[in-house]
Amino acid sequence: xxxxxxxxxxxxxxxxxxxxxxxxxxxxxxxxxxxxxxxxxxxxxxxxxxxxxxxxxxxxxxxxxxxxxxxxxxxxxxxxxxxxxxxxxxxxxxxxxxxxxxxxxxxxxxxxxxxxxxx
Length: 119
Fold this sequence. Notes:
Strand order of the largest sheet: 1-3-2
Strand content: 15-25%
CATH architecture: 3-Layer(aba) Sandwich
Helix content: 25-40%
Number of strands: 3
C-alpha cells in the first residue's frame, strides 16, 4: 500500500474515538462486505477528487469498475453495484478522501462529513 492509499486506515483510530457509537472495520476490497449490512458507511481514498466528498447509493455509478478476468477481480465498486441492484444494501455513504491529502485535513473533513450524516 502506498502512503497516499493508507490515509483512511491511519485516521480510523481517531475516528473511532470521535464516534464510539460506530463500528469501524478494515477490509480488503476483494473480501465480501459483512453480511447483514443494509446500511454502509465506507471511508476510502479516491483518485480524482480535491476535497472530501460523500457519495451515496445514487452515486455508485461514478465508481470505476476494473476489467474482470478471474474471481479475484470483483472489487468493491462491483460488489456495491451488485448488492444495491439486488436490494441487499439499501443505503450507502462513501466518504471519499482525496488521494494524497494530508492526514490531518482528511481527518477534519471526514469528521465534518460523518457529523453531517448523523440524524
